[in-house]
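Following up on my earlier message about zinc ion. Here are the inputs again, as you asked, copied directly from the submission form:
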Amino acid sequence: MRFGLYFSNLFLSQQIFLFSLFSFTSSSLFAETNYQKNSSSILGPRVSLKSDWVGTNKVKSSLQILVMAGHADSQGLAGAGTSGSAVALYGSKPMDPTISDELFWNLKVRDAIVKLGKARGLNISSYEPGIRNIDDGNDPKTNWSFGARHIREGGYAFEIHFDSYGEFGFGSGLIPAITRSLNTVDESLARRFGRYPLFFRGGLGAPRRGIRILEIGKLEGKLEEMLRSSSSQKETIDYVALQIVDAISDGLNLD
Ligand SMILES: [Zn+2]
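Thanks, got it. Here's what our run produced:
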């Protein structure tokens, strides 16, 4: 257990204790202060690429929000998502041998976001393509096609991802859509998670279709360890979902 070298049980207990506090006092100043500390310690590094866009377009508080799990339709040879450092570097078993660890967590976080978002009064839903490998990105059942339709109808769509470990990843942050009309939800997510440049990697498939990509954090270190540990898994998923729902709620109310 290589991770045992870094993380004591005491550390885990403290984190779990703090998570419980967030669940009940997320709007208080106390929780916000702790959030700042935990955000950097649990989600790992933020993206540090130069980026200067600002999301200023106002949106209605009833904005229809669609959340999708990154790689839910692309579990073939290419584009399956990161296997995470535990599997790739340290010999751990995949969480589910039929899908990448990234997708395993993306699905759980997607569902937690919708559950919490609905409880908080957001107009939010998710999309499940139902087929784990669709080769043609333009097939009507893909995340990209469904998300693009949602956007054409006036909604906001984003895919959640965990970034690659080590030198292969950049860290947490929002990859914006390639559009002139970035809005206050984009701005709020970028402030909380980090801000990728507008033309990251020359413009990825999702952002070209108007779909935002939220990199939650690199699938390594404390974040991955806390997701994989049965004693902290649910709290960690709920914590990540809370950060996202809070950021969206703030973005809907920014002036
Ligand atoms: Zn991904």
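One observation from looking it over: The chain has one domain: 2-16+60-253. Hope that helps, and feel free to reply on this thread.
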